[in-house]
Amino acid sequence: MTSAKQRIKAGIDIGSVTTKCVVVQGRQTIASHIIRTAINPEQAAREVLEKALGQGCLSPSLVDKVVSTGYGRRRCLFANQIVTEVTAAAAGAYWLNHLQPALVIDVGGQDTKVILVGKDARVVDFLMNDKCAAGTGRFLEMMAVSLDTDIDGLSSLAKAAHHPASINSTCSVFAESEVVSLIAQGIIREDIAAGVFLSIAARIASMVKQFPESSEILFCGGGAKSSGLHLALEKTLNRQIKILPQPQFVVALGAVLASE
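Above: the chain's sequence. Below: its structure in token form.
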């Protein structure tokens, strides 16, 4: 018989692009996994949980509770509890930041959130950009394709830039056309890539500046894995920005913590 101390919980973050799962015992992550969400969020949730448990050589019977979050959270029909992604991001960031309040930037596949987190992981205020892909992970993917590279390659190109190009469009579709035009003008890829990151950073910075100055700025979500975006944000805001550990899993972890 399994003792209470061996029971575990799973947090599943069903995003528009990827679905993440963390398996937690106490407050320690013992397994995690990430897959593409594709067209069936419920199937993605089941698959990512199965793979995370397999990674940790854990039996499904040990799972005491499943908590879902993210845009597809209500499609996870086997979840015991649902938590909003803003609440989950705040809880995960607060825990990983040693229980200290901060301003959190969460850049996902289809939206960007800026969350002011107070004591006890309380959400004091937040802003979300979910009306346009500009400033999100999806926008980075589009720009990378336009420059015949991937997101990591986009960062490498940007670091080699000497004269970052100016990209002014606030719409992802027009910005893509602007990049194509810059290529036609003979602007080198390195300078275009740097311009892409500075353009995104300017949009995110405009959100950040609507909050009182915080002692610390934290960065999570898939966008936090982009070194080019991280550097552009620090340059634009003239602030040090701390990338949280395993940034793509912060919200899934926070779903478990917020459910306690």
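The chain has two domains: 4-88+251-258, 101-243.
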